[in-house]
Design a protein that fits this description.
This protein has about 270 residues and is α/β, with parallel strands linked by helices. The chain is built from 10 helices and 11 strands. The protein binds glutamine. The site of glutamine has 13 residues, from helix 7.
Length: about 270
């Protein structure tokens, strides 16, 4: 069977887990072959000799197991990041958070930033790539996340700009002058029934407490206590009211909420 016929054969198996089944079979095939899409385009009519391996991966994907955990890659901000099980898969809307932070940091020289919950490292690594003289302290409670983020920092050559520390929120963050805190913390309410694909991701990267915004509130409080001037956070679509109310306790100079690509409330920037 040719590559083209193989792709057509396996695509229907993924129709219940994705709206782009053919594309996903192609991605899996390219992963198996370690080739790029142009190569596949030029070789569609050649004989496929890896059907057995492909069939296994398609079967796994058909259980709603995330594609990114199979290919160990996810694209973010136009770059390809390493991804592993036990660490949250990057989401496109987090690009907006990076843009908001960049807009502030580009005007601060020698800026110091702390990221709470570094995960794969997408936020810290992108900021380190975008801002020339930045220094970042990136923390996570999860050892797998710290190892992966440090791998991504090396992949993009920014490991000298980021210090990784194991820490539950701010617990082990040194008490030094910091300009900005940034975080995409777990913010889903504990009782929320996750869609099947998301259940494969680590729950300590997803659930934020009984209401969901508890960790965000802790981050707001600690940012204010440490006299950090800027706070950029992602949040749940229904948390704007509770968080804008909570932020008022700390007399911010200004707070701006922003929406995601689906026009849902998704985060805020606070100036203290
Ligand atoms: N900072 C990482 C991200 O945005 C991890 C976030 C998390 O694990 N909650 O993807």
């Amino acid at each position: 069977m040719t590559y083209e016929q193989t792709i057509k054969k396996y695509a229907p198996l993924l129709k219940d887990v994705t709206h782009i089944p053919q594309k996903e079979v192609e991605i899996l095939l390219l992963f198996v072959l370690d080739k790029n899409p142009i190569w596949l385009h030029l070789n569609y009519k050649k004989e496929c000799e890896c059907e057995d391996i492909l069939a296994k991966l398609v079967k796994k994907r058909a259980t709603d197991f995330p594609l990114e955990y199979i290919t160990k890659r996810a694209s973010f901000y136009g770059e390809s990041f390493e991804v592993r099980e036990n660490v949250l898969i990057p989401r496109p809307e987090t690009e907006i958070l990076v843009e908001k932070a960049e807009a502030i940091l580009k005007d601060i020289s020698n800026s110091k930033v702390v990221e709470i919950g570094v995960g794969t490292g997408i936020i810290s690594v992108m900021l380190a790539k975008l801002i020339p003289d930045i220094k970042i302290i990136a923390v996570d409670i999860n050892d797998h996340a710290l190892a992966l983020a440090s791998l991504n920092a090396k992949k993009f050559g920014v490991e000298d700009k980021i210090t990784f520390i194991k820490s539950d929120l701010f617990t082990n963050v040194p008490n030094i002058k910091i300009d900005m805190c940034i975080s995409n913390p777990p913010y889903i309410e504990n009782s929320f029934k996750l869609p099947k694909n998301v259940t494969f991701e680590p729950s300590n990267a997803l659930f934020g407490g009984v209401k969901g915004d508890e960790l965000l509130k802790n981050i707001i409080k600690e940012t204010s206590k440490r006299e950090i001037r800027f706070l950029c956070c992602e949040m749940g679509f229904d948390q704007k009211n509770s968080l804008s109310g909570y932020l008022k306790n700390f007399n911010p100079k200004k707070v701006e909420f922003y929406k995601d690509y689906e026009n849902l409330d998704r985060g805020f920037v606070a100036w203290f």
